[in-house]
Amino acid sequence: MSNLEDDIVNGNGSDKLEKTLTETGSKDDENLMHNWSLTFNEYADQNGYGDPGNGKQHSEKESAVSTIASDTVTGKPPDGRGHAIATLKTGKVIKDTRKYVEVDADTKKSEKSDSIPDDTATGSMTLKDSIDNDRDGNISPTKTDEIMRTANGKQDTPELSKYTVLPGITNKSQTLVNAKPTVVVPPATTALSLGATSGNKAPRNTPATGHTGGKVQQIYVRFPGQRTGQMMFAEMDQQSGHVRIVGLDKEKEMLARLAWLLLDAGTSALRATFDSIHPPLNLREHLKQAHVKAVLQKLLQQSVLTERQWKLLYPIKKKHSTSQAYDSRTLIILLETICHLCPPYPNGWAREPLPNDGSLSADIVRLQLLYLDMARHEGIAGESYVQWFLQIRDVIVRLGGPPIRLKIDRIETELINLELQQHYIKTLRETWQPDLIQKLEKVHGLRSKTSRARKAYANTKGSEEGLSAEDRVVLKKVHKLLVENVQADDVIDRLQQSQVLKFSDRQDILATSKKQERTQILLDKIADSKLPYALKALFDAMKFKYKKLYDHVMAVRKQTYKEGVVTTIDVEGITEECLRNQYKSRLSRVYPFPWTDSVYGSVRDVYTSLDIVDTDGNKLSHADLLPLPATSGKGSRIIFEGTSGSGKSIFCAWLAFMWATQPSYFRAQYRHVLYLNMSEMNGNLETAVYKSLFPENFKITLSDFWKMLERSADEVLLMIDDYVHDSDIDITDILLGTRLKECTVLLTSKPHTKLPNGFVADCKWFNLGFNEGNIRRCFRNCVSISDLEHDQFEKLYHLSGRESWPLRSHLANPMMAVMAFGVYSILRKGTMLREMKTTCDLLEKYGVAMATLYCRKQKIDIVGFEFPDEVMRAIDALDQFAFSCVMNGRRTFSEDDVVQKTGDTVVLKFGAFSKFTQSSMLRFACGISMDFLAARHIADMSFEDIETTVMKNKIVKLPKFAQLMSFICGQYREDTDTSVLISLFDQLAARNEYCIRGLYLPATTLQSPVSVESELKTKRLDAVQTVAQSLPQRLIIRSDGLITLKTTQGLCLALEHKDCTVQEIELDLHQYHNFQLPVFLALAGSTSRCRNIHSIKITWSSLDTMSRYLAAVMEQGKSVETLYITEDHTRKCIPKHVSAVTWAAMQSACNHMTSVQHLSFLNARVTAVLNHVLQHIPTTIAHINITGCAFNLMCAGQIASHLHGNTMIRHLDLSNTKLNSSELVAIFQGMQMCDGIQTVRMRGARLDRPCIVALAEYIKLTHSLENLDLSDCELNTAMCTALVAAIKQNRTIKRLVFNNTKLTSEGRRVIAKTETRLNPVSVEGLLRLY
């Protein structure tokens, strides 16, 4: 035996063994041997080979030396998945890289593989048992003979005497015991088993049996505890039986494995990418295109492509061409030249892309550079191998997707022999030679020059980015053509690959469903792109899908660059950018609470959604809050109407901020949005607008700015906030359209604000304020902005949801809700809020809370609500200042102005003023608080001064003082012994008597002169009586807008008073009133309880509101005798779908018309509505008028059914109903059975012969008809003769009316002589005959 073996047997071989293992590179395997001082028998003991519990013979301690895997058995490497494993049992490890180790030849045995003895009794293991029991093998034991034959490349079983037999030893006994023969199976090295692909095959001279020479054979070795992938190479001399473990070149092996990864998985990933762009079915046709072939021929001339690659691209005999034969170099060249991919920005194809660039082009460049790097290496060090492998793997997975992982996992774990190592390294270097690298760079020469030109241009232009001036001109020229013909879906993928678009841009584009809108958004993003080649990338993406269009736009681009563009200032672009930046900076920090400037946020965080409806009754969504631009040559003029404190200003600010930060949020798109606050502007219009929008030293001059607005007015939205007629700024020309005609104008104002003469709004929006859910959302939003705990405000949340809380209806006003939050957050008394019933209560408690907060900050002790004198003096000064502002119409001022007028700086600390943004001026928190403070000042005057002030300033007369008048009355709501309130209501009563056509109530206020609460109802009956007596007999409630809550509540009190003298009510109900249904239902209840009202006239465009109002009136209105119900044709028609609640309300209203004697249901445009009314009205109605209604046969049948046997009806009016022949015949037949009709009016009826026959038959039979009106009809001579013949047999007809009736001359003569049996008939409307 060798010296190493002797030392091991004697127990002294630890040092030599460690040296040997170090040389072979196996020391790092802790599973192999974690303690180098152990002998091999100790190692066997430690690993359980002598443990009887493991089924191993302790007396025969064996150490598994090697596991030899046969690749030729399955054609795959030994990775544990379907491979035959044979274990060689021996008593010692033979592991020496310097020499062969001889083994005692006396222990050799020979036998056939088909007669391997069963040695399990002695603890040995045969090949058959090894295959059965090895944990990595899954080959059936019945294949043992085949395995042995295949392993040796022969059809017969080899003799075991040719192979090495290793003896076993005992622990330190130097005695040989039970040496067992074991089979050594050589490995296979077939190319297919090692994953070689087409174009990267293993050498053809590789022996099938794995022999590397005539006498030496390569085998694999695995130690106990090692994985299959950790096998080591060994060499065996077949003649002498010497075996040794070969020390491999690890760096070369790692390089070979990376080359294998690149040539196998990398090529597959590139092929998958190429096939996704040019599918195999269309590849041949694509390559045959003239421009593609010209590009490839140029590459062939430059020796970038070889003749072999050219023949693969254009085979002579094959009809079809696929990419399966293309190697990695060919695929990369094709991807970079003919696949329409834009080079990675900014380095192009030749250099490393940016680290965060995840585009397809960037990964192709990365993989190309990895090919080049690996081709230059001679070996890969162990410490850098993992980094290289992970880098290559990540790129390949991104290109090839999840399916490529299977190949990567197999390459990572399979063994690679010396032959394949040399093959893969050689193939990689041949494919990616240094001279080929230079040739590849020529491919990108033009692009590199272009890139350098771009950089040079960028350096000359400074920091400017984006499209060039020429490209911007080109985009404008072809914009309409692209929108109409290009679909964004066809180009968006390529634009995203070239990094022109981001993923978020893709989501924005695909969010809309209309194709033209998608293209519009795409072009906007191209125009706003910071990349100078964005437009060129768009045109390249259109190249093949839109070939003709591509040629056209490229011709336009070429001509534009040839002619050049005169460099001018982009006034529109600079203005747009400045406006957006101004709104972002101003409105990103706003102060929502008047009492503190330490709480702030962006206007988007502060804003709570408002309920906004238009004149058609449609509730506007957030996306529709920017009105549509002009399409007919004139922009829309829209009035946004709302009461004081309803959130108009913050709504406009929110629109401007959202336009600046998220322009795609709205459906309508504007390039310029001008947000103007009229209260902060004065002087000349042009100068005031310019100064309010732009900073000082703005580069665009005043004249250029207004010229731009006139030129592009259709892209301008003008938002004018807080408009009043007597403002210092005159915008009449803009409203009338003499200036900025195509501009869209959104004007905010209070109800009944006087507008310029001749101005008619195209549309009106009405601000309803908060709904029930948004009141609570506003409170939560206030708590969040203030960084307070929500648990502390649960009482406030709960209180806002109680319907019985009288103040809740007033909190729909956003400013009232904010003040309620301020009162609770400062005083923290839920009981105080719960006891509030009117806005006066809330405003008074708000003042108390502000004074309390001031005393806390100044550390002033207060007892209850007794405040020191300095606080009371400041409050009085504040009241006086508010009164002067109301009288003078002043709405904004600076802090110095306030201090100068009041003489006290403390007034600024009571939460009465707000400064919405840092740059804005001071103003009162809202118009409500200003009017309330002014009313307090008036209430503190003497009785004589109050009368003088009210009369002198026309507070009772002018509508703009209605809210102030309401608060003045509210100051005396608890005072039962005063002449002030009586005097004020006497003046209101006198005003009502003067306005004889209607009731004068402050329709624009939240607080009416007569409050709604029950306490006031008992204490202030004198005031209610005064107003009730002043109401006219005919009360007209007609408003082109919303009616405030307190107005209707005060009117309800007056109507229910016993002294109310109202007899007739006229009321308009439109679609937008449907959102105020509770208000009108309360008014209906009071109307029904007023015993003097006998006539109601309703003009409606909302069927639901009309039906439910009428049902509420008729349910208790026993005194109503006359109903006039007219549909307003100037409004939008009722919806096609009518709810069951509406039908039920209509039926209830008709069923309760028992007291009605005159029913006029006019101009109904929907036959179903008329049919429903006729079906349910009682037969007690004497006069029925259905003029102008739409009829069908069912309606005619309902009339006939209603008339059948009816003895109460006296008057029937069917004028202008456009009844046809069959419908009229049905009605006349029903009239024959009705004995009571005295008057029949059929103006405009389309009469024919059957109708006249039926009418004549009715005239003959009736005994009650006295008046017949056939005006506006058309009768021939025969009809007139038949009609006169029937009348002659009648005894009751007294009057015939033929106004504007078309008659023949003979028919006129016949009718002129008409008379009954008893009396002559009065004929009206006939022209005198001569």
TrEMBL record:
Residues 15-30, 104-115, 129-143 have a biased composition (Basic and acidic residues). Gene3D superfamilies: Death Domain, Fas, P-loop containing nucleotide triphosphate hydrolases, Ribonuclease Inhibitor. It comes from the Eukaryota. The keyword Cytoplasm applies. Pfam families: CARD (PF00619), HEPN_DZIP3 (PF18738), NACHT (PF05729). Keywords: ATP-binding, Cytoplasm, Immunity, Innate immunity, Nucleotide-binding. InterPro entries: CARD, DEATH-like_dom_sf, HEPN_DZIP3, LRR_dom_sf, NACHT_NTPase, P-loop_NTPase. One of its GO terms (biological process) is regulation of apoptotic process. Residues 467-543 form the CARD domain. Residues 64-73 have a biased composition (Polar residues). This is CARD domain-containing protein. GO terms for molecular function: ATP binding. GO terms for cellular component: cytoplasm. It is found in: Cytoplasm. It comes from Dreissena polymorpha. PROSITE patterns: CARD. Residues 1-30, 43-83, 104-143, 194-213 are annotated as: Disordered.
